[in-house]
Design brief:
Strand 4 and strand 5 form a beta hairpin. 32% of the residues lie in helices and 34% in strands. It has a single domain, classed as Nuclear Transport Factor 2, Chain: A. It contains 6 helices and 8 strands, in the order H-H-H-E-H-E-H-E-E-E-E-E-E-H. With 212 residues, the protein is of the alpha+beta class. The protein is globular, with a radius of gyration of 17 Å. Strands 1, 2, 3, 4, 5, 6, 7 and 8 form an 8-stranded mixed β-sheet that branches. The N terminus is likely disordered.
């Protein structure tokens, strides 16, 4: 019963997003520039650049954080709603950047907050490379509007985000994000945002799917 409820909710959210995007006043269409990616000296530095790119809605900076083989792994019910096979519930960098281009370019949507607390960090290394796994608890606030113009805040607080970073040079000082996945957790109810507008508990997977 829980699975059916989640699936129906996701489908409803996708319809809601379609209405938002039809009413959008315009989009930024910045392209990712090949060969212009900065060099990140640590996994933490990549994460900080990733967060900053979301807050500034800079798609070039966002794309520069991601490996060419990057993948975003969806929550199971969201993957189902997107028609992704159970054996491959993810999409790659091209689809991810396209979705975030739509999100950043929608004039009715603004990224209000992206705070987080690091829950754990694990490091794996061998002679050729190093992998860092980092789990965070996000506190993300997205402002948007319903089709009738009613303001609403999407609160992404009820999950953990798991990031994988890899060194891309023999010197171990050039890092990139290779994967992001999400896990729902049972936390206390989201605290309503002060001021005008309703709030809606959300997941990062749902946000990505809305702007695919």
């Amino acid at each position: 019963m829980r699975r059916i409820s989640n699936h129906a909710r996701v489908l409803g959210l996708l319809v809601f997003c379609s209405l938002i995007m039809v009413c959008s006043c315009g989009k930024k269409t910045s392209d990712v520039e090949d060969g212009s990616s900065p060099s990140y000296q640590s996994a933490q530095e990549v994460l900080e650049a990733y967060v900053a790119s979301c807050l500034t809605e800079d798609i070039d900076a966002y794309a520069s954080c991601l490996s060419e083989n990057y993948r975003f792994v969806f929550l199971e019910d969201v993957a189902d709603s997107l028609g992704l096979p159970p054996s491959q519930p993810w999409w790659g960098k091209e689809d991810d950047v396209a979705a975030m281009t739509n999100l950043f370019g929608d004039q009715r949507v603004s990224w209000e907050q992206f705070d987080y607390a690091v829950q754990s960090t694990d490091t794996l290394s061998n002679a050729d490379s190093m992998i860092v796994k980092m789990r965070i608890r996000p506190d993300i606030v997205i402002f948007t509007e319903r089709s009738q113009g009613e303001p609403i805040y999407l609160l992404i607080r009820q999950s953990h985000l798991d990031f994988r970073f890899a060194s891309t040079a023999a010197s171990m000082d050039d890092w990139i994000m290779v994967e992001t996945s999400e896990e729902r957790v049972r936390l206390q109810a989201p605290v309503p945002r002060p001021g005008q507008g309703a709030t809606e508990p959300f997941t990062y997977s749902e946000l990505k799917a809305m702007f695919r």
